[in-house]
Specification:
Helix content: 10-25%
Strand order of the largest sheet: 7-6-10-8-9
Order of helices and strands: HHHEEEEHEEEHEEHEEEHEEHE
Largest sheet: 5 strands, mixed
CATH superfamily of the largest domain: Outer membrane lipoprotein wza domain like
Radius of gyration: 29 Å
CATH architecture of the largest domain: Roll
Distance between the termini: 40 Å
Strand content: 25-35%
Number of domains: 3
Oligomer: single chain
CATH topology of the largest domain: Outer membrane lipoprotein wza fold like
Length: 280
Protein backbone atom coordinates (compact mmCIF):
# COMPACT_ATOMS: atom_id res chain seq x y z
CA UNK A 1 0.00 0.00 0.00
CA UNK A 2 2.85 2.38 0.80
CA UNK A 3 4.33 1.79 -2.69
CA UNK A 4 0.97 2.42 -4.36
CA UNK A 5 0.43 5.65 -2.39
CA UNK A 6 3.88 6.87 -3.32
CA UNK A 7 3.25 6.11 -6.99
CA UNK A 8 -0.04 8.07 -6.81
CA UNK A 9 1.82 11.12 -5.49
CA UNK A 10 4.45 10.75 -8.19
CA UNK A 11 1.79 10.37 -10.90
CA UNK A 12 0.14 13.64 -9.84
CA UNK A 13 3.50 15.33 -10.28
CA UNK A 14 4.01 13.68 -13.67
CA UNK A 15 0.63 15.02 -14.81
CA UNK A 16 2.11 18.52 -14.54
CA UNK A 17 4.86 17.73 -17.04
CA UNK A 18 3.12 19.25 -20.08
CA UNK A 19 3.30 22.60 -18.29
CA UNK A 20 6.97 22.13 -17.56
CA UNK A 21 7.87 21.26 -21.15
CA UNK A 22 6.58 23.83 -23.62
CA UNK A 23 4.19 22.32 -26.16
CA UNK A 24 4.80 25.27 -28.44
CA UNK A 25 8.50 24.48 -28.59
CA UNK A 26 7.72 20.82 -29.39
CA UNK A 27 5.39 21.68 -32.27
CA UNK A 28 7.93 24.14 -33.61
CA UNK A 29 10.54 21.36 -33.74
CA UNK A 30 8.14 18.83 -35.27
CA UNK A 31 9.14 17.68 -38.74
CA UNK A 32 6.36 17.02 -41.21
CA UNK A 33 5.88 13.52 -42.56
CA UNK A 34 3.54 11.35 -44.66
CA UNK A 35 -0.20 11.42 -43.79
CA UNK A 36 0.06 14.67 -41.79
CA UNK A 37 -2.83 17.05 -42.50
CA UNK A 38 -1.80 20.65 -43.19
CA UNK A 39 -3.72 23.92 -43.45
CA UNK A 40 -1.96 26.25 -45.94
CA UNK A 41 -3.06 29.89 -46.18
CA UNK A 42 -1.69 32.92 -48.03
CA UNK A 43 -2.72 36.33 -46.72
CA UNK A 44 -5.02 38.17 -49.12
CA UNK A 45 -5.35 35.26 -51.59
CA UNK A 46 -8.16 32.96 -50.55
CA UNK A 47 -7.86 30.88 -53.72
CA UNK A 48 -4.48 29.65 -52.49
CA UNK A 49 -5.81 28.60 -49.11
CA UNK A 50 -5.97 24.82 -48.95
CA UNK A 51 -6.13 21.87 -46.55
CA UNK A 52 -3.89 19.08 -47.83
CA UNK A 53 -2.67 15.73 -46.64
CA UNK A 54 0.95 14.79 -47.14
CA UNK A 55 1.31 11.87 -49.54
CA UNK A 56 3.25 8.68 -48.82
CA UNK A 57 6.01 10.22 -50.94
CA UNK A 58 6.21 13.26 -48.66
CA UNK A 59 4.59 15.74 -51.06
CA UNK A 60 1.60 18.07 -51.15
CA UNK A 61 -0.12 19.59 -54.19
CA UNK A 62 -0.91 23.33 -54.17
CA UNK A 63 -2.58 25.69 -56.68
CA UNK A 64 -0.04 27.40 -58.98
CA UNK A 65 2.84 25.40 -57.52
CA UNK A 66 1.86 21.80 -58.15
CA UNK A 67 3.81 19.20 -56.19
CA UNK A 68 5.89 20.48 -53.25
CA UNK A 69 8.26 18.27 -51.25
CA UNK A 70 7.50 18.82 -47.55
CA UNK A 71 8.72 15.74 -45.70
CA UNK A 72 11.31 16.51 -43.05
CA UNK A 73 10.54 20.25 -42.88
CA UNK A 74 9.37 22.09 -39.79
CA UNK A 75 6.28 24.30 -40.03
CA UNK A 76 8.45 27.44 -40.24
CA UNK A 77 10.68 25.90 -42.92
CA UNK A 78 7.66 24.97 -45.04
CA UNK A 79 6.23 28.49 -44.70
CA UNK A 80 9.53 29.89 -45.96
CA UNK A 81 9.73 27.38 -48.82
CA UNK A 82 6.20 28.08 -50.10
CA UNK A 83 6.79 31.82 -49.76
CA UNK A 84 9.96 31.62 -51.85
CA UNK A 85 8.25 29.51 -54.55
CA UNK A 86 5.37 31.98 -54.83
CA UNK A 87 7.70 34.98 -54.85
CA UNK A 88 9.76 33.55 -57.72
CA UNK A 89 6.79 33.57 -60.14
CA UNK A 90 3.65 35.15 -58.77
CA UNK A 91 3.71 37.34 -55.63
CA UNK A 92 5.84 39.93 -53.92
CA UNK A 93 6.59 39.17 -50.27
CA UNK A 94 3.79 36.60 -49.79
CA UNK A 95 2.68 35.95 -46.20
CA UNK A 96 2.29 32.18 -45.85
CA UNK A 97 0.95 30.39 -42.78
CA UNK A 98 1.12 26.64 -42.20
CA UNK A 99 -0.89 24.92 -39.47
CA UNK A 100 -0.46 21.22 -38.75
CA UNK A 101 -4.01 20.00 -38.14
CA UNK A 102 -3.26 16.29 -37.70
CA UNK A 103 0.00 14.65 -36.74
CA UNK A 104 -0.21 11.21 -38.38
CA UNK A 105 3.35 10.43 -39.40
CA UNK A 106 4.96 10.37 -35.97
CA UNK A 107 2.97 8.55 -33.33
CA UNK A 108 3.58 6.15 -30.51
CA UNK A 109 1.11 3.67 -29.03
CA UNK A 110 0.60 3.58 -25.26
CA UNK A 111 -1.06 0.42 -23.96
CA UNK A 112 -2.05 -1.08 -20.64
CA UNK A 113 -2.39 0.66 -17.29
CA UNK A 114 -2.80 4.29 -18.39
CA UNK A 115 -5.91 6.48 -18.31
CA UNK A 116 -5.95 7.21 -22.06
CA UNK A 117 -4.49 4.24 -23.95
CA UNK A 118 -4.09 4.40 -27.71
CA UNK A 119 -2.00 6.28 -30.30
CA UNK A 120 -0.45 9.57 -29.22
CA UNK A 121 1.25 12.25 -31.27
CA UNK A 122 5.01 12.50 -30.96
CA UNK A 123 5.70 16.23 -31.10
CA UNK A 124 9.37 16.94 -31.54
CA UNK A 125 11.68 15.20 -29.08
CA UNK A 126 9.50 13.67 -26.38
CA UNK A 127 10.52 11.35 -23.59
CA UNK A 128 8.88 8.36 -21.97
CA UNK A 129 7.58 10.40 -19.02
CA UNK A 130 6.07 13.03 -21.31
CA UNK A 131 4.18 10.44 -23.36
CA UNK A 132 2.90 8.70 -20.20
CA UNK A 133 1.70 12.10 -18.99
CA UNK A 134 0.04 12.71 -22.36
CA UNK A 135 -1.73 9.36 -21.91
CA UNK A 136 -3.21 10.55 -18.61
CA UNK A 137 -0.69 8.97 -16.26
CA UNK A 138 -0.33 5.49 -14.82
CA UNK A 139 -3.30 3.84 -13.07
CA UNK A 140 -3.18 1.87 -9.83
CA UNK A 141 -3.34 -1.36 -11.86
CA UNK A 142 0.20 -0.87 -13.17
CA UNK A 143 2.73 -3.62 -12.61
CA UNK A 144 6.39 -3.22 -11.81
CA UNK A 145 7.77 -2.31 -15.22
CA UNK A 146 7.28 -0.50 -18.52
CA UNK A 147 8.06 -2.29 -21.78
CA UNK A 148 9.11 -0.18 -24.77
CA UNK A 149 8.96 -2.07 -28.08
CA UNK A 150 10.84 -0.52 -31.00
CA UNK A 151 11.28 -1.44 -34.67
CA UNK A 152 14.86 -1.81 -35.88
CA UNK A 153 16.27 -1.43 -39.37
CA UNK A 154 15.85 -5.03 -40.54
CA UNK A 155 12.12 -4.98 -39.74
CA UNK A 156 12.50 -6.90 -36.49
CA UNK A 157 11.61 -5.50 -33.06
CA UNK A 158 13.55 -5.05 -29.87
CA UNK A 159 12.23 -4.38 -26.37
CA UNK A 160 13.48 -2.48 -23.35
CA UNK A 161 12.17 -3.16 -19.86
CA UNK A 162 12.18 -0.23 -17.43
CA UNK A 163 11.47 -0.45 -13.71
CA UNK A 164 8.59 1.79 -12.62
CA UNK A 165 10.16 2.22 -9.19
CA UNK A 166 13.51 3.26 -10.68
CA UNK A 167 11.90 5.72 -13.11
CA UNK A 168 9.16 7.24 -10.95
CA UNK A 169 10.34 6.85 -7.36
CA UNK A 170 14.13 6.94 -7.71
CA UNK A 171 14.02 9.42 -10.59
CA UNK A 172 16.71 7.69 -12.66
CA UNK A 173 16.99 10.15 -15.57
CA UNK A 174 18.75 7.54 -17.74
CA UNK A 175 15.49 5.60 -17.94
CA UNK A 176 13.50 8.59 -19.22
CA UNK A 177 14.43 7.67 -22.77
CA UNK A 178 13.51 9.72 -25.86
CA UNK A 179 10.88 7.95 -27.94
CA UNK A 180 10.86 7.32 -31.67
CA UNK A 181 7.97 7.15 -34.17
CA UNK A 182 6.05 3.84 -34.02
CA UNK A 183 7.36 2.93 -30.57
CA UNK A 184 4.94 0.88 -28.45
CA UNK A 185 4.90 1.74 -24.75
CA UNK A 186 3.26 -1.09 -22.83
CA UNK A 187 2.54 -0.78 -19.10
CA UNK A 188 1.24 -4.26 -18.23
CA UNK A 189 -1.79 -4.44 -15.98
CA UNK A 190 -0.97 -6.29 -12.78
CA UNK A 191 -4.41 -7.13 -11.41
CA UNK A 192 -5.32 -7.98 -7.83
CA UNK A 193 -5.94 -11.67 -7.10
CA UNK A 194 -6.95 -13.55 -3.95
CA UNK A 195 -5.27 -16.14 -1.76
CA UNK A 196 -7.34 -17.63 1.08
CA UNK A 197 -5.93 -18.60 4.48
CA UNK A 198 -8.32 -20.30 6.94
CA UNK A 199 -8.09 -22.18 10.20
CA UNK A 200 -5.64 -21.55 13.00
CA UNK A 201 -4.18 -18.20 11.99
CA UNK A 202 -4.73 -14.87 13.72
CA UNK A 203 -6.49 -13.14 10.80
CA UNK A 204 -8.15 -15.79 8.64
CA UNK A 205 -9.76 -14.78 5.35
CA UNK A 206 -8.86 -13.58 1.87
CA UNK A 207 -5.52 -11.95 1.07
CA UNK A 208 -5.52 -9.46 -1.79
CA UNK A 209 -2.19 -9.62 -3.62
CA UNK A 210 -0.83 -8.57 -6.99
CA UNK A 211 -0.65 -11.30 -9.59
CA UNK A 212 3.07 -10.65 -10.11
CA UNK A 213 3.77 -10.95 -6.39
CA UNK A 214 1.78 -13.95 -5.14
CA UNK A 215 3.26 -15.00 -1.77
CA UNK A 216 4.76 -18.31 -0.76
CA UNK A 217 3.05 -20.48 1.86
CA UNK A 218 5.06 -19.03 4.76
CA UNK A 219 4.55 -15.47 3.50
CA UNK A 220 0.79 -16.00 3.21
CA UNK A 221 0.57 -17.35 6.75
CA UNK A 222 2.60 -14.37 7.93
CA UNK A 223 0.27 -11.93 6.13
CA UNK A 224 -2.65 -13.67 7.84
CA UNK A 225 -1.14 -12.77 11.22
CA UNK A 226 0.86 -15.95 11.74
CA UNK A 227 -0.05 -19.19 13.46
CA UNK A 228 -2.43 -19.10 16.41
CA UNK A 229 -1.47 -20.87 19.65
CA UNK A 230 -3.56 -23.90 18.72
CA UNK A 231 -2.16 -24.28 15.19
CA UNK A 232 -0.65 -27.51 13.94
CA UNK A 233 2.32 -26.78 11.73
CA UNK A 234 2.65 -30.37 10.51
CA UNK A 235 -0.56 -30.85 8.58
CA UNK A 236 -1.13 -27.60 6.70
CA UNK A 237 -3.28 -28.22 3.62
CA UNK A 238 -3.20 -26.36 0.31
CA UNK A 239 -6.22 -26.78 -1.97
CA UNK A 240 -5.67 -25.86 -5.59
CA UNK A 241 -7.64 -26.12 -8.85
CA UNK A 242 -5.44 -27.50 -11.64
CA UNK A 243 -5.61 -26.72 -15.36
CA UNK A 244 -8.25 -29.41 -15.88
CA UNK A 245 -10.52 -27.91 -13.21
CA UNK A 246 -9.82 -30.67 -10.70
CA UNK A 247 -9.09 -30.01 -7.04
CA UNK A 248 -5.57 -30.91 -5.92
CA UNK A 249 -4.68 -31.25 -2.23
CA UNK A 250 -1.12 -30.67 -1.05
CA UNK A 251 -0.27 -31.56 2.55
CA UNK A 252 2.72 -29.68 3.96
CA UNK A 253 4.80 -29.99 7.13
CA UNK A 254 5.56 -26.28 7.64
CA UNK A 255 7.98 -27.11 10.46
CA UNK A 256 10.34 -28.63 7.89
CA UNK A 257 10.20 -25.40 5.85
CA UNK A 258 10.91 -23.28 8.92
CA UNK A 259 13.90 -25.50 9.77
CA UNK A 260 15.20 -25.24 6.22
CA UNK A 261 14.76 -28.93 5.47
CA UNK A 262 12.54 -28.26 2.45
CA UNK A 263 11.81 -25.32 0.19
CA UNK A 264 8.91 -22.98 0.75
CA UNK A 265 5.97 -23.51 -1.60
CA UNK A 266 4.96 -20.87 -4.13
CA UNK A 267 1.21 -20.35 -3.95
CA UNK A 268 -1.01 -19.71 -6.95
CA UNK A 269 -4.04 -17.54 -7.61
CA UNK A 270 -7.13 -18.69 -5.65
CA UNK A 271 -5.18 -21.23 -3.56
CA UNK A 272 -6.86 -22.08 -0.25
CA UNK A 273 -4.56 -22.68 2.72
CA UNK A 274 -6.05 -24.47 5.74
CA UNK A 275 -4.10 -24.52 9.00
CA UNK A 276 -5.50 -27.28 11.24
CA UNK A 277 -5.82 -27.27 15.00
CA UNK A 278 -3.40 -29.23 17.16
CA UNK A 279 -4.86 -32.42 18.60
CA UNK A 280 -3.77 -32.82 22.23
Amino acid sequence: MKRIATIFITIHFILLLPHLFSLERSTTDYRIGPKDLLDISVFGLNELNKTVRVSEDGEITLPLLGGVEVEGLTRAELEKKISQLLEEKYLQDPQVTVFIREYQSKRVSVLGAVRKPGPHELLGRQTLLQIISQAGGITNEAGNEIIVIREVEDGASTSLRISIDDLFLKGDARLNIPLQPNDIVNIPIDRIVNIYVFGQVRRPGALEVRRSNIPTLLQAIGQAGGFSERASKRGVLIKRIDEDGKEVKIKVNVKSIIKGKRSDIQLQENDVVIVPETVF
